Amino acid sequence: MGKLIRLLVILVVIGAGVVGVYAWLRGKDSAGDGLKTVDVTTGAITEKAIAVGQIKPRLEFKVKSKIPGIVKRCFVEVGERVRTGDPLFEIAPDPTPSELVQVEREVESRRAAFDRAKADFDRLKQLHAEGIVAKGDLDAARESFDRARIELARAEDGLALTRRGRIEGRGSEMESIVRAPAGGVLLARQVNPGDPVVPLTSYQPGTDMATVADMSDLIFQGTVDEIDVGKLQVGVEARIKIGALPDKPVTGRISRIAPQAKEKDGARLFDVELELDPAASLTLRAGYSANADLVIREKTDILVIPERLVTFEDGGKKAFVEVPGDAPGAEPKRIEITTGLSDGLNVEVLSGLSKGDKVIQRPPKEISGLPG
User: Fold this and answer.
1) Do 291 and 245 touch, CB atoms closer than 8 A?
2) Tens digit of pLDDT for each residue in 320-332?
């Protein structure tokens, strides 16, 4: 029982001491004014706009087929480099029964016309040799015969393409192979062997088979808010931060600003393009997300103070700060200064203060009366 009483006494003494210390500290704070001073220093301020976008190749195109069918073979894989004319895909014909019947009947019709034109030409040639038919009639028959021969060859070529996907003979072999229209790197392949292909025609876009791009010429494409676009112009310097390469900054300059805004998620944005400066030790890939700081104005080695210490009046035309009084313990003085460039955190001081001067920083005001 005695031990319990001693323990309670000790706890009461400790509690009283804590309460006393807390009351002393609270009284000390209430007695002081909580003012602090901040030195006027030199530094740099950059006014900038932010562009959000990604790294893209300047030249990028889709590969499509001009003939229908099924993908038989793929000659390249994603990431491989191709040259102009390299084979990319082989298309096997996949005609419907009605299409096959149509081309077969076309060949029969053209062959009948050819046989009739040949017979007419042979007959007129004999009559011309006997002096019965004029040379003009013979020439007209020869022209009709040549036209029928060409139409028959074209119909037979169409039948060969429909049945086998190739045209053989005439000293060469023409296969239904889709080739690269230009050189670059295969970024994506949208089809695999066995996939159907719709051809590119004047009334349909056709199937996207692959995406090829020139990876030696990359640019930044992004958007800027309408609030900042009026401050920008072509040639403005940009500092690009790539999400996948945070420690490797890239620089560039604005090369294009869209003349018209587009609306996205309730905001009006303008497209911008940036030319990237060469970076020999850096390997960029298409699709890297990035943010670009577009440097509108920048000053170095200037007088700066935190903007939170400045009070603006008269619509921002006048600026005031508080400085310590002339004597120790005196009330702070309010003086007018002239400000310049601001980045939202710090502001340039053009006049009214010198390096090393001290500016008063008041403690934040407590908000009372709010419901607990």
Assistant:
1) no
2) 999 888 777 788 8
